[in-house]
Specification:
single chain, Urease, subunit C, domain 1, 13 helices, about 35% helix, binds zinc ion
Length: about 400
């Protein structure tokens, strides 16, 4: 039995002095108040969740490198990134497209490697010639190297879902748009008929669908098709936000990825991208919040030098410009857990014992979620970081 005492954020509210009791892999009791003489461990909260990342295992930040990188290197670097994430207080992550994540997920679940629980899409689903298709390569070579299945009709996309399921996918990732092209246009991705068939097939397998969506059209197509989460979601407007609210679709704005300088050579494309990103960084989360959407933390970090795994708490810091500190903590724990459809992210009887103990109180300052403040990390009831818990 493991007992942790201190100020607690349970996923929705704060308990000033309380005790969490863990038995096996579960939380069995949350007590208010602590006994005289009980050791105070620190600020206790559910393990954090990054609902959108990639295990790319590569230093560079460009699509050709992500495709060309040697797969053994990807596996080795990603195994290291898994451990870094866990030590930084992340106990669940969702990989939305990589070559190794379904394997990492299995190896972690069987206890062969150390890291957060991994929800993995396996390969993502995208159109031929989309943004993640390195178009300088011959198509057959690109498809062989890609971390996406290219699919171009409702039937091909249905099959692509089955191929992802065959890889061991526990979520399905789709590209409902590309990014920006000349003239400020957002490149199209999978169309409404393809998205509908993907959602239908994924839900038949009990899997949620996460949609990369830039711009109003892609968001609308995705939400109407019934996807479960909107990723990035640049260009959210009142109509799309209220439709998302109605459908219960989660919003994962991945602000952390947009604070990193991104090289775009074409000046016109660069200007449009900068405009859309700046609006996203200033307005979209405000709108999502006033529409009452479920907003979850996701960084879109890939493990590169500029988007390194381990610093993923940045998303919470950026969200705190628009949300109260309590709301941010819920976004990175209980709301993210709900958006992923998992029984994690809460300190409640019957929940899995995924816990972080921090030196300093993040309800005062969200920067206190940084890895430097992490004292203990408990996952599935097992202590992975920090000694002196008397067990
Ligand atoms: Zn991504």
């Amino acid at each position: 039995m493991l007992k942790l005492a201190g100020k607690i954020f349970d996923g929705t509210r704060v308990i000033e002095r309380g005790m969490v009791v863990v038995e096996g892999n579960q939380i069995v009791e949350v007590e208010e108040g602590v006994e005289e003489g009980d050791a105070i461990h620190g600020f206790i909260m559910p393990g954090m969740i990054d609902a959108h990342l990639h295990f790319f295992g590569v230093h560079e930040d460009n699509v050709l490198s992500w495709n060309l990188v040697n797969e053994i290197d990807v596996a080795i670097r990603s195994t290291r990134d898994m451990e870094t994430l866990l030590r930084a207080g992340f106990t669940t992550v969702r990989d939305l497209g990589s070559k190794v994540a379904t394997r990492l997920s299995r190896l972690e679940a069987s206890g062969e490697i150390i890291g957060p629980r991994v929800i993995a899409s396996g390969y993502s689903l995208a159109i031929t010639g989309g943004d993640d298709d390195p178009k300088d390569l011959p198509l057959d070579v690109a498809q062989r190297l890609s971390y996406s299945f290219y699919c171009d009709s409702p039937y091909e996309c249905r099959k692509a879902v089955r191929l992802a399921v065959r890889q061991g996918a526990t979520v399905i990732k789709v590209y409902a748009s590309g990014a920006f092209s000349q003239g400020g246009k957002i490149l199209p991705g999978l169309g409404p008929d393809e998205l509908k068939s993907i959602v239908e097939e994924s839900h038949r397998f009990g899997l949620r669908v996460a949609s990369h969506a830039y711009g109003r059209e892609a968001i609308l197509n995705s939400v109407e098709a019934g996807v479960d989460t909107i990723e990035h979601g640049l260009g959210l407007d009142e109509e799309t936000a209220s439709l998302m609210k109605e459908r219960g679709t989660c919003y994962i704005p991945t602000l952390a990825t947009y604070e990193i300088p991104f090289h775009v050579s074409n000046p016109e494309v660069r200007r449009y991208r900068e405009e859309a990103v700046s609006r996203h960084m200033k307005e979209d989360v405000k709108l999502a919040r006033s529409a009452g959407l479920k907003i979850a933390t996701g960084t879109d970090y890939v493990g590169s030098d500029s988007r390194p795994h381990g610093r993923n708490y940045r998303e919470a810091v950026l969200l705190s410009q628009f949300l109260s500190n309590h709301e941010v903590l819920a976004s990175t724990t209980s709301i993210a857990g709900e958006c992923l459809g998992l029984r994690v992210g809460k300190i409640e009887r019957g929940y899995l014992a995924d816990l972080v103990v921090l030196k300093a109180d993040p309800t005062q300052n969200v920067e206190n979620l940084s890895p430097e403040n992490v004292i203990h990390v408990v996952r599935n009831g097992k202590i992975y970081r920090g000694a002196g818990l008397g067990v």
